[in-house]
Amino acid sequence: MEEDTIVIDKKTKKPILSEELCSGCGICTNRCPFNAVSIINLPEALDDPVHRYGQNMFELFGLPNIKAGSVVGILGPNGIGKSTIIRMFSGELKPNLGKYDEEVSWKEIISYFKGSQLQSYFKTLSKGDLKVVHKPQMVDLLPKFVKGNVQKLMESVDERGAMDEVMESLELKPILSRDVSKLSGGELQRVAIAAAALREADFYYFDEPTSWLDVRQRLNAVKVIRNLAEAGKSVMVIEHDLAALDAISDYVHILYGQPGAYGVVSQMRGVRVGINSYINGFLREENVRFRKQPITFDVKPPALEIEAEVIADYSSLKKSYDGFSLEADQGQIQHDEIITAFGPNGIGKTTFAKILAGVTKPDQGKINKKVTIAYKPQYLVSDFDGTVEELLLTTAPTYGTNMFKTEILKPFSLEALMDKEVDELSGGELQRLSVAVTLSREAEIYLFDEPTAFLDVEQRLKAAKAIKRVIESRNAAAIIIDHDIVFIDYISDRAMVFNGEAGVKGHASSPMNLRSAMNSFLSSVGITFRRDKETKRPRVNKFESYLDREQKEKGEYYYLES
Q1: 504: part of which helix (H) or strand (E)?
Q2: Using CA atoms, how far apart are residues 505 and 514, in angstroms rounded to an integer?
Q3: Which pLDDT score is estimated for 562?
Q4: What is the CATH number of the domain that holds 462?
Q5: Element spanning 18, H or E
Q6: E strands in 329-366
Q7: What is the C-alpha to C-alpha distance for residues 420 and 432, in angstroms, rounded to an integer?
Q8: Are residues 111 and 260 located together in one domain of the fold?
């Protein structure tokens, strides 16, 4: 028809596809040598977008509701529009209602949301009468912008007069005199939560508040954020730890769509119903299936102590540093098993991992049988100069094989990252790449230190499945250090408990069945879990609730037998 369907934009010098003329034939997607073109069929029921960045660019359909005196949780994959939502709610980005090539007035925006709670929200925002506080995702960047010690920072932001209470809840008093630049990831996270909670605002937004925190610290953070809602504030939280999201939220919105292309905000649901809908992959009210298979949780009976083939065993281990010491009971690691290690931060889990990996030598004790170990450390450093594909070519021995494609490349969605520079990857992308590179190596034991940090729920469970498959196919074993109870429950065969005094001394138990390990650990922190009747996922019991008291009396901290 002699119509130009693909033209080069004069300003950006990039190709633009005509969406009006596109018939969805798929020829361009097959012909493009860089896999740069995708054709996505949107659900017919979608109305006009709330925001669109430009032609052939990301668009967002719908916005979450905001409720005073409640915490609204946002649950969905990375790249689906969560950052766009907060930029709109904070006034940094004006919703353009899909009209990306023209200026949209506040009058039009307020009219668009007529009859909803968002009408009055945007009305107040347009006048500049709304104060928003945002706890960012990347707390490790905090020292670049904040100088001085923790005490001075807290005093400078304490607009609500709640400093003592918040410091107590988040256990920050021991580090008040410390300089912000000297804090660990978990300490920075708690400082960032405290700084946000102490400010006076109408709307509070917390982006992934539990990264780097142990189980006890996560529930302390839940308490501080819930206190804001109880004081009548509007609070919104993005969280990928399902147990923490369940404990923190009153309502949830599920986001679905195609990451990087479009995102849809579902109707508001009660927190239990919403999380269960997400696990099942089906939104009944919208009649939308966004995952082929539901996520299933198996209730494992206590494992019988059977004589399985041992890959490695170690004697009692001791390691001392200046001011800190670790003792580990003797133990065995068996073929085809995944052992999780959990406990408070600063208790020696990473030290134990380094001893097993041969990075650190113990002062006493030894690994009785030399084994090959593939190790993914806790903190990721992207100092490689080159693309993801170049990194895989040089560090992943099985790269290019069919096994790598099916067991690693696809589950970790690495195809889309191949041409990206490694030093430009986001936290989640770097995490996926690090776990994938570790799994690609031939080893008898795979050691992962916090593999779920920065990953969304879907990516965590895909990572769990990929790790399980590789371990079984290679007749190997894995040890995983993590704090996400839902992930731990999903992946574990056995578990180790770490306890002691943070930063002073730590003790590691021998590997034991998951139920016994969880009961031992949760009793020390005074938290009980139950299982959801529908999906069997672990859920936190409210402190001093009937179930909490009943389980504590019976000594069943993990879950009661049904």
Answers
A1: none
A2: 24
A3: 45
A4: 3.40.50.300
A5: none
A6: 331-334, 337-342
A7: 14
A8: no
- Assigned token pair, 432: 């996926």
Query: Closest Cα partner for 264 from 53, 63, 41, 56?
Result: 63
* Domain range enclosing 121: 94-127
Q: With 80 as the cut, is the pLDDT of residue 304 above it? A: no
Torsion region of 555: left, alpha or beta (phi above 0 gives left; psi -120 to 50 gives alpha) = left
Which has the closest alpha carbon to 166: 151, 147, 146, 149?
A: 151
DSSP character string of 475-539: T-EEEEE---HHHHHHH-SEEEEEEEETTTEEEEPPPEEHHHHHHHHHHHHT--EEE-TTT--EE
Helix (H) or strand (E) holding 265: strand 262-265
Residues 280 and 185 in one domain: yes
The answer to whether residue 550 sits within a structural domain is yes
pLDDT tens for residues 251-273?
A: 999 999 988 889 999 999 999 99
Q: Are residues 136 and 280 in the same domain?
A: yes
Compute the half-sphere exposure of residue 303: CA atoms within 13 Å on the CB side of its CA: 18
Question: Cβ(339)–Cβ(333) under 8 Å?
Answer: yes
Round to whole Å and give the CA distance between 198 and 292.
43
Band of residue 323 on the pLDDT scale cut at 50, 70, 90: confident
Decide: residue 140, CB within 10 A, 0-12 exposed, 13-18 middle, 19+ buried: middle
| 536 and 493 part of one domain | no
Encode pLDDT of 135-176 as tens digits.
987 787 788 888 888 999 999 999 999 999 999 999 999 888
Looking at this protein, which amino acid is placed at residue 466? A
Cα–Cα dist 548/540, whole Å: 9
Rounded Cα–Cα distance for residues 36 and 34 (Å): 5
Q: Report the number of distinct structural domains present in the chain.
A: 5
